[in-house]
Amino acid sequence: MKRAEGLRANSLQFTLEKNPFRILGGSVHYFRVPRAYWEDRLLKMKACGINTLTTYVPWNLHEPERGVFDFEDELDLEAYLRLAASLGLWVILRPGPYICAEWDLGGLPSWLLRDQNMKLRTTYSGFTDAVNSFFDKVIKKITPYQYSQGGPIIAVQVENEYGSYAKDDKYMPFIQQALVSRGITELLLTSDNKDGLKLGGVKGALETINFQKLNINEIKYLDDIQPQKPKMVMEYWSGWFDLWGGLHHVFTAEDMILVVTEILKLDMSINLYMFHGGTNFGFMNGAFAVGIPAPKPMVTSYDYDAPLSEAGDYTTKYHLLRNLFSSYH
């Protein structure tokens, strides 16, 4: 396929090669799935009618010690991108540096905290130096897989839900420049919930919204702050995560499919978070730091009540989605 013009957001619809393009996306994190099962999960995703894979990149696994990098086995990001391409899936990459993802310290490596003055997710030099060092390593691996180079990556996300944090107004421009200066040329996106939209954007990146229940006023707000642009739900929460001591979260298939149907009727693009949750291996489950007296730890499972279960099994959600998506491509 000749590559002339990648994903663009210059009108009410995305275009790819100047043709209207709707993103039907799903999140599967390579680091939450044993490598032997990557192909199985992505084939099932493709068979459901998904055209775009989204994944985070976990800094704390790729640089477990300062200056020591790991891109082997389950962390072979390039192999994952090649696999997606071979199956005909586009990719939206979300390299952080902060990813949230209910992941230990939101994917930031714990060694950052040895600096007693550390200010995470700001332009504090101790943080930006570490980000620059990591990006030097990881972005170099990513750039050859961009659409313009013949690869599957059609868009790259700048940080993650910064609007909910927003401690430093120079931070998002810093991350954006860190990506662009290292050769990222595809469409840039940001991702926030409704409240975060006010503060999470950065000039030159398309803002997208995250939610589970559809509120038409939130869509209107996105339209108001970003007129004549395509609208996308970057994280449509297909389920929810579980905390130790709590019940397993269930968001019924019927409720989910009603909302997804409405989103598509509104001519929006969508990314299901998660399409397949997988597992928080080791001690990577993180904690939900809201509540007194202590944060509540996540469980090892990241099943998320997603369309593909933690074990990779089909669910009712999967079949309903497949039926729905079949009329959109």
Automatic annotation (TrEMBL):
PROSITE patterns: GLYCOSYL_HYDROL_F35. Residues 13-326 form the Glycoside hydrolase 35 catalytic domain. Belongs to the glycosyl hydrolase 35 family. This is Beta-galactosidase-1-like protein 2. It comes from Ilyodon furcidens (goldbreast splitfin). Signal peptide: none annotated. It holds the Pfam family Glyco_hydro_35. Gene3D superfamilies: Galactose-binding domain-like (2.60.120.260), Glycosidases (3.20.20.80). It comes from the Eukaryota. Keywords: Glycosidase, Hydrolase.
